[in-house]
Amino acid sequence: MINVPACIVGCGPIGLAGALLLSRFGIDTLLIERRSAVNTHPRSRFVDTNTMELMRFLGLEKAIEETGLGPDWTACNRWLNALTGDQIAAIPCPTFHTVPRSTSPTMPVMTCQDYVENVLLDEIRCDARIELRYRTEAVEINQDEQGVTVEIRDLVSGERSTVRADYLLGTDGPHSFVRKAIGSALEAAPLNNYSQDVIFDADLSEHVKGRKAALLYNATPSGVLVFQPLNGITRWRCQIFKADGEPLPEAETIGRIREAIGDSEVPLRITSTGIWRPTPGCVDRLSKGRVFLAGDAAHVAVPTGGMGNNIGFAGIRNLAWKMAYVLKGVAPAWVLDTYQAEHRPLALERIATGVETTAFMRKIFTAHYAGKDPSEGVRETRQYGDYDGVLLGFELKSPLIAKNAEPPPAVENPTMDFVPALRAGRRAPHVWIGERQGQSILDWFGTQYVLVGGAAVAARRWRNAVSRVADGAGFPVRWERLPVMEAAPYRPGGLALVRPDGIIADCWNDADVRDGDVEARLRRQLPLQPA
Asked: Which string of DSSP letters, residue by residue, matches 322-354?
């Protein structure tokens, strides 16, 4: 029997990231995957700001950046009647754009899922805490109060073996075996169209000269087709929108691609193809007992906005530290219940934003084919690549997070507009520490709770309280103090208690807390083991 603290079924990017996160907390993991290698038909491309902050914590930020297309491809999305034809609209994409920003130490990256998986895999192969087994499937899952028993099968030899784990994570995609095993239901509503995915090689440099874009939509006489650059040179993905689930023959597929390019002679080679139907939705429950779901096993997004994998990364970051704390005995098991309370609403909001944006985008095509002005659809579709309000302005709620006394900052458009704020349940705002801008305050967070004090805070009493909790309760919490008075939205006299995943658990003013209440205030918001 194989004994391991955590077993992960499914080695796509979310499963790989989950294993790396658990390893950072000192937790050993067994990863199993039915495939024999990285997925060579990638679906996801966009690595958003939150995910890049996670990659920064893992030490992989630069490696992911190097796989990306760069800023000349990410400034906008375009709608045309052919790559070499007339442009219908060009809509700026500040959320996609790979340029430095004031809200994060990282830049978003437009890349390709298999490139990201390979970066994660390279890191995993150097990690002694992680065992990875390809061509292996889970065939039976049973659990009791002490752990989970998984029967696994080697798909090459047929040999079966038994894994005993404290916890099991299902990151095995939209048709998840783990999800079925725990009886969780994917509450989803299929859209009324299908999409034929095609990965192909072609040199389109002359065809996109002067009109590069993250996405190039083409409203051709035969229907809508969108081009997505994968490496910015010769590797492309396209989606051919269809009314039914029957894939086009290869000759017709090539014809449709050439029609959308506007060049009937351009050489191209199809390397893979598949057809699918957008089916956005989320499971009713993210866990049962000691078995948890993450990534596409837990929720499925439409491709519009590139939110699918990024929702998964957000979920696994939310879950991993909680699971590690419980496994290490520093936090009670109820902490794991907050994964459902915190992550499911976030997933539902981002899925709904993608569905809404898809509906807006369709107005552009409807107007174009009808010979009408598409400006209304263009105006509404601005949020396709401009949704920092959703991405960075979310606010989690659970027993791990204090209640805010004041309402959130008012914004004109909650989807697009983002105002950094120091509020419980929000991502801790980024500020640079020091003049060289090499270290962000976000670099303080990752494996411990951190109490951040402003420059005017009476540091000694808070530092001593943190030490008493860390030493007396054995809880991973430490003290940090901002070195400068001006670090808005952090206040000189304010404090923020930040979780390992960078989410603010509570914040308050130093002057409002009496000396005798300092340690009690800190203990009240930490998930300490009962005395």
From this structure: HHHHHHTTSS-GGGGGHHHHHHHHHHHHHHHHH
| pLDDT digit string, tens, across residues 412-450 | 999 999 999 999 999 999 999 977 778 999 999 999 999
220-241, pLDDT tens digit by residue? 999 999 999 999 899 999 999 9
Q: Name the one residue in this structure whose structure tokens are 């067994």.
A: 30
Cβ contacts of 35 within 8 Å, gap of 6 or more: 11, 134, 135
Please choose, from the candidates 359, 346, 291, the residue with its C-alpha nearest in 3D space to the C-alpha of residue 150: 291
First vs last Cα of the chain: how many Å apart?
Answer: 35
Instruction: Report the length, in residues, of the chain.
Output: 531
The Cα angle at residue 400 between residues 423 and 415, in degrees rounded to 5: 45
In what order do the strands lie in the sheet containing 87-92?
Answer: 87-92, 76-80, 216-220, 223-229, 235-242, 194-201, 269-276
Is the pTM higher than 0.90?
yes
Locate tokens 């640079």: which residue? 432
Tokens of 502: 């960078």
Distance from C-alpha of 214 to C-alpha of 228, rounded to nearest angstrom: 6
Q: How far apart are the C-alpha atoms of 321 and 357, rounded to whole Å?
A: 32
- For residue 138, the surrounding DSSP H or E stretch is strand 136-143
Query: Does the CA dihedral 159-164-170-176 come out positive or negative?
Result: positive
Cα 47 to chain centroid, rounded:
7
Q: What are 9's two structure tokens?
A: 């079924």
Contact 280, 332 (CB under 8 A): no
